[in-house]
User: Which sequence fits this backbone?
C-alpha cells in the first residue's frame, strides 16, 4: 500500500499542515509519496524530500498549477491516483477545496476530518461539532481523506532523502482563473501553527478595544490572535481569526480565551489545546468546564494586570 499526499506550499516552502498530514499517511501505509504541484516549486519539492518517512516526491511543474486552483490540482491528483491506496490532503481550506473533487472524480466516498487512523481502512473522525467521535470504515479501492492536522504530530522536517521524480503537469481546466489574491500580512505566528493563541469574544465590545486589550497580551506571549464567531461577526476581528466549527481548528500549547462564553461551536475549534486559560466574569460560563485555569474576573481589569505582571 502506498499513500499520496498533496503538499501545501508557497512554491518555496512547505506549509506545516503537510507535516501533520504525512504523519497520518504513515499510519495508513509504510510507503508515503508527496505531490508538490506548482510553478517554480522545486524548493518546496526539495523540502518535501527531506521529511522523515517520505519515500518519493512527485514534482509537477506548470503554469496550470501556479495559482493552486482546485480544479487543476484535483485533475493532477486524479491522473496520478492509479496504484495508490490512500490520497490525503490536510483538512485546511485548501485541502477541503481539492479533496472532494478528487473523491468525486474517482467515484469514491471522502473520509473527512480524520483524527485517528485505526488501520488502513478504519478511521476516527469527530461529528456533531466534536461532541461524538465516529469510527468509519471504507472498502473503497482508494481512500480519499482529509486530515485534521491537530490530531497528528508533525513529521520531522529533516532526516529524509527521498528521490524527486518529475511528472507532467495537467493542462488547465479552463473552468476557473485566479482574479486576485489579498494576503494578510502579520508579524504574528500563523493561527493554526502558533504555540500560543490569545482569543477574544463578544465581551471586548469593539474592534478598537479588541486591539487595545488583547494585542499587548499577545505581544508579551508571542501569540497569534484568534476570535469567537460573535467577535468576528460584530467586526471586532478579521474573518480569518475565527476559531471554531466554522473557523479554524487550533491545538496550541496555550489557548487564552478572553470574554468567550465557550459555546460548543467555539469549543470544537480549540478544546484539544494543551492548556486552556479562560477569563470570564460569569462563573457559570461553559468555557470554565474545559479550562485548565479559570479566572472569574472583568477582562478589562484582568488582562492589563496580567500584561503588567508578565
Ligand atoms: C452553525 C454554527 C456554527 C458556529 N461556528 C462558530 C465558530 O466557528 N466559532 C465560534 O466562536 N462560534 C461559532 N458559532 C457561534 C456560537 O454558537 C456562539 O454564538 C459564539 O461562539 C459566541 O461567541 P462569544 O463567546 O464571543 O459571545 P457570547 O456567547 O456572547 O459570550 C460572551 C462572554 O463574555 C463574558 N463577558 C462579558 N463581559 C465580560 C467582561 N467585561 N469580562 C469578562 N467576561 C465578560 C460573558 O460572561 C460571556 O460568557 C456557531 C454557531 C452556529 C449555529
Assistant:
Amino acid at each position: 500500500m502506498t499513500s499520496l499526499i498533496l503538499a501545501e506550499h508557497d512554491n518555496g516552502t512547505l506549509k506545516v499542515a503537510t507535516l501533520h498530514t504525512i504523519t497520518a499517511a504513515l499510519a495508513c501505509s509504510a510507503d508515503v509519496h508527496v505531490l508538490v504541484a506548482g510553478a517554480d516549486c522545486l524548493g518546496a519539492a526539495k523540502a518535501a524530500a527531506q521529511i522523515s518517512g517520505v519515500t518519493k516526491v512527485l514534482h509537477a511543474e506548470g503554469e496550470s498549477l501556479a495559482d493552486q486552483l482546485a480544479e487543476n490540482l484535483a485533475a493532477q491528483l486524479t491522473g496520478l491516483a492509479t496504484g495508490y491506496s490512500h490520497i490525503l490532503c490536510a483538512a485546511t481550506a485548501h485541502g477541503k477545496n481539492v479533496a472532494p473533487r478528487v473523491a468525486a472524480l474517482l467515484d469514491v466516498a471522502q473520509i473527512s476530518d480524520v483524527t485517528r487512523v485505526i488501520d488502513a481502512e478504519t478511521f476516527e473522525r469527530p461529528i456533531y461539532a466534536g461532541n461524538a467521535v465516529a469510527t468509519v470504515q471504507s472498502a473503497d479501492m482508494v481512500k480519499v481523506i482529509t486530515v485534521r492536522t491537530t490530531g497528528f504530530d508533525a513529521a520531522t522536517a529533516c532526516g529524509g532523502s527521498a528521490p524527486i521524480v518529475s511528472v507532467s503537469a495537467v493542462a488547465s481546466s479552463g473552468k476557473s482563473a485566479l482574479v486576485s489574491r489579498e494576503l494578510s500580512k502579520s508579524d504574528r505566528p500563523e493561527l493554526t501553527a502558533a504555540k500560543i493563541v490569545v482569543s477574544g469574544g463578544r465581551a471586548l465590545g469593539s474592534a478598537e478595544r479588541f486591539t487595545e486589550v488583547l494585542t499587548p497580551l499577545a505581544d508579551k506571549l508571542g501569540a497569534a490572535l484568534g476570535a469567537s464567531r460573535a467577535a468576528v461577526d460584530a467586526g471586532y476581528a478579521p474573518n480569518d481569526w475565527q476559531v471554531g466549527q466554522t473557523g479554524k481548528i487550533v491545538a496550541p500549547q496555550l489557548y487564552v480565551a478572553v470574554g468567550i462564553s465557550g459555546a460548543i461551536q467555539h469549543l470544537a475549534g480549540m478544546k484539544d489545546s494543551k492548556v486552556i486559560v479562560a477569563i470570564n466574569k460569569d462563573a457559570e460560563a461553559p468555557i470554565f468546564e474545559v479550562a485548565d485555569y479559570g479566572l472569574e474576573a472583568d477582562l478589562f481589569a484582568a488582562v492589563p494586570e496580567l500584561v503588567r505582571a508578565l
